[in-house]
Design brief:
The protein is of the alpha/beta class. The protein contains nine helices and eight strands. An eight-stranded parallel sheet has the order 3-2-1-8-7-6-5-4. The structure holds 2-phosphoglycolic acid.
Length: 233
C-alpha cells in the first residue's frame, strides 16, 4: 500500500511563510508512486499552487454554500480544486464537534467524492484504563463512519501524544492499528509527536501506512527529510 505522509499546519504560519514552504516543496520533492504527500494548511492558503503534493482542508461544513458565516463549504473547496478534507481532529472535537456533526460532515463529503482523513484517538484517562476502554472509545468515534468508503483514511492520534513531544510506544501503536485493521483494509495513519527521529520506526510497525505530522512538519526542510525517510522505510 502507498505510504501517506500528511502535514497538519493547524493555525500556524503566515501566507508568506506558506508560499515559501510550498515553493520549496514543489521544487525539491520528487513524488513517486509509493508515497503521497498531503498538506493541511490553514484555509487562507488553500489557493496556493501545489504541484507534486495534495492540499486538504483541516475542516469544513457539510453544505454546498449558503448562510453559514465563518464556515468553509463544498463549492468554495471545489472551486479551488480541493478534494481532501480532514475531519474529527481531537482539537475540533474539543471545541464541541460531536459524533453526530462529524457523521453528517463525513457523509456529506463522502457523497461529494472527497478523500477524507478521519481522526480518532483516546485521552490520557482512557489510556490509563486499558485496551478495552480505548477500543470502546475509538469504536464510538467511528460510529456512523462508513469504513468501506474507499476515499477514507483513518488517522489514529492519541490525544496525550499530540504536541507532547513524546509519541505513543511502538507496541501501543501496533495494538491499536491491529484493532483498527480488523475493521478496515483502508490506509491507517499514526499521528502524535511524529518527527524525523521516530518516523522510520513508526512506519515499520505492522498496519501503519503513514503518518499525520503537526509541529515537526512546520519547517519544510524537516518535512522533506521525513518524506525521504518514508521513501526508504
Ligand atoms: P503533533 O500534532 O505532530 O504536533 O503531535 C499531530 C496532529 O495533531 O495532527
Amino acid at each position: 500500500m502507498k505510504r501517506i505522509i500528511a502535514a497538519n499546519f493547524k493555525s500556524n504560519l503566515s501566507i508568506q511563510e506558506i508560499q515559501q514552504y510550498f515553493k520549496t516543496l514543489n521544487s525539491s520533492f520528487n513524488p513517486s508512486k509509493d508515497i503521497e504527500a498531503i498538506i493541511f494548511p490553514p484555509a487562507f492558503a488553500l489557493n496556493l499552487e501545489a504541484i507534486n503534493f495534495n492540499l486538504g482542508a483541516q475542516n469544513a461544513y457539510g453544505a454546498k454554500n449558503g448562510a453559514f458565516t465563518g464556515e468553509l463549504t463544498l463549492d468554495g473547496l471545489v472551486s479551488l480544486g480541493i478534494n481532501y478534507i480532514m475531519l474529527g481532529h481531537s482539537e475540533r472535537r474539543a471545541m464541541g464537534e460531536d459524533q453526530k456533526l462529524l457523521t453528517d460532515k463525513f457523509n456529506f463529503y463522502k457523497d461529494a467524492g472527497f478523500k477524507i482523513v478521519y481522526c480518532i484517538g483516546e485521552d490520557l484517562n482512557t489510556r490509563q484504563k486499558g485496551q478495552d476502554n480505548i477500543e470502546y472509545m475509538l469504536s464510538c468515534q467511528l460510529e456512523g463512519i462508513d469504513l468501506d468508503y474507499n476515499g477514507l483514511t483513518i488517522a489514529y492520534e492519541p490525544i496525550w501524544a499530540i504536541g507532547s513531544g513524546v509519541s505513543a510506544k511502538a507496541s501501543d501503536i501496533e495494538s491499536i492499528h491491529h484493532f483498527l485493521r480488523q475493521k478496515t483494509n483502508l490506509a491507517l495513519l499514526y499521528g502524535g509527536s511524529v518527527n524525523d527521529s521516530n518516523l522510520k520506526e513508526i512506519l515499520n510497525i505492522p498496519d501503519v501506512n503513514g503518518a499525520l505530522i503537526g509541529s515537526a512538519a512546520l519547517k519544510v526542510e524537516n518535512f522533506l527529510k521525513m518524506l525521504e525517510i518514508a521513501k526508504e522505510a
